[in-house]
Write a structure and sequence with these properties.
Elements lengths: L1 E6 L2 E3 L5 E9 L4 E9 L6 E7 L5 E3 L7 E6 L4 E6 L8 E9 L5 E3 L3 E5 L2
Parallel strand pairs: 2-11
Antiparallel strand pairs: 1-3, 3-8, 4-5, 4-9, 5-6, 7-8, 9-10, 9-11
Length: 118
């Protein structure tokens, strides 16, 4: 079992920055990949960025490429999402995700709200 807890969301003006953090506890060694998803009202949850827990291979969705950076601190069992040049369309609930190696099972955090508005 893995538990994920996000923090760092809030209200920011367009062009600003936020850093989301996700603390993972439990059987971390069972995890292959961690990532961030987001869900805006009326839309499906979609992948923002992901990173392999060992090796650090990253993936970014086209709409955040060049603006967001995903990183991990494996010693602290943390994953971060540095969000720069934020736009109104980045407004959403952001969810931390972890994928189990053996069967691809998804673990989810409770979500943190990010609102980009002037």
């Amino acid at each position: 079992q893995v538990t994920l807890v996000e923090s760092g969301g809030g209200l920011v003006q367009p062009g600003g920055s936020l850093r989301l953090s996700c603390a993972a506890t439990g059987n971390i060694f069972s995890i292959s990949t961690m990532g961030w998803y987001r869900q805006a009202p009326g839309l499906q949850r979609g992948l923002v960025a992901s990173i392999t827990r060992t090796g650090g291979n990253t993936y970014y969705s086209d709409f955040v490429k060049g603006r967001f950076i995903i990183s991990t601190d494996n010693a602290k069992n943390m994953v971060y999402l540095q969000m720069n040049s934020l736009k109104a369309e980045d407004t959403a609930v952001y969810y931390c995700n972890a994928v189990k190696k053996i069967n691809g099972y998804d673990y989810w955090g409770q979500g943190t709200q990010v609102t980009v508005s002037s």
